[in-house]
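snRNA-activating protein complex subunit 3 (Heterotrigona itama), 388 aa
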Amino acid sequence: MDDVYKLYNKNASAKIPIKEYFDNYQKLIDDCFIPMKKDENNLMSMMGVDLSTEEISMLTEYCSVDNLTVEGEVPKLVNNRRTRQKEVFDAQEPPDVDLKTIQNLKQRLKQNSKRLVYKYLSELFINYDKKERTNEILAVPGHDILIYVRIYHPFIHRGRTAPKSECCTLLRLHNIIAVLGSQTLAQLRDKISCVADYSISKECSDNLDNAIGPMAKDVYKSGFFFIEDTFYNDTRCPTNVDYSEVIIDWAQRRPKLGPFKTAIMEDCRLDSLCLRFGFPWVYKHQGGCEHLIVFSDARFINCDDELGISIYPRIVRLRPMSSKLCMVCGVYVIQWITMDHERIPHNPCYFCDICFKSYNYIDDKKVGKFKAYAYPRNIEAVEGKINI
């Protein structure tokens, strides 16, 4: 597989056994890591000094990061949605300060007139209200591992030999999920949302009350993660299908692919993995819906993080997507899709609920010939029954 996807190795790390790596790291920081909530006594104990309140206040003022800023500098990244405002990220004229970093910045701006690209420009940070949790198991700072996983939207890839008339889609980030190393791949899977999981599409133009049935994820529960050389299958439901079986059989007839192994998703802790960070792996569900996933970062959880184990996995950042609007009024979001509509020039055509019913029905009776489908959406999220 490395021969096939060697292009990605340029940006990926070497293989890292997560548990072993952090065990060794923990031995190095045992003497200096502050495991509990920060306070003055912990800081002085670590520094090996005994300072008065006045001396601590003076040091706090002198060592503040605010003293490292200069006039006209881009503001510090604040963990909220306002960081996406254009004026925050656009490059400003560097101040006239006799510092080498500022002079180098001026020179670089002259050489490159294009707009600078910032890492989090297209992502929204999700702010959660911190709550006091009682009688709950907490993660231990400096001991429990926090892993970040980037989840991408499914996309259609057009191969080099495919006809140019075939459509393809761009790879787009969906969200970033933070998960504890002690949690399993099955728990990560349960946090991944996809439009293919929301509802089972069925023709309902003659009976709109029967448009929305059970969630597809509750009916078709099979799926797997492919990480390194292993397929991690979801076997929690006895009727789940092993999607990897046909892939492994296909790969055995190709000398450059494999050999592959299989494992059980719900038995695999994330900190037991040995993988490359920054390398794209695959999550597959609903038969043929595939998502790229990337393990982007891992670190010890600290006292500034939410420590309640029950709130993980959690979405920490997401990339906003523009809503699809009704093709008739152009105001409301779509709720219905029509196909083969004899009175509409578009196939398919997208309707909001008001336009769909007012144009296609008179006294609840269907007008003309067409096929109608409910637009897939997460009913639980719409009704406010779940949180991200």
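The longest helix spans residues 18-29. Residues 59 and 234 are 54 Å apart (CA to CA). ok done for today
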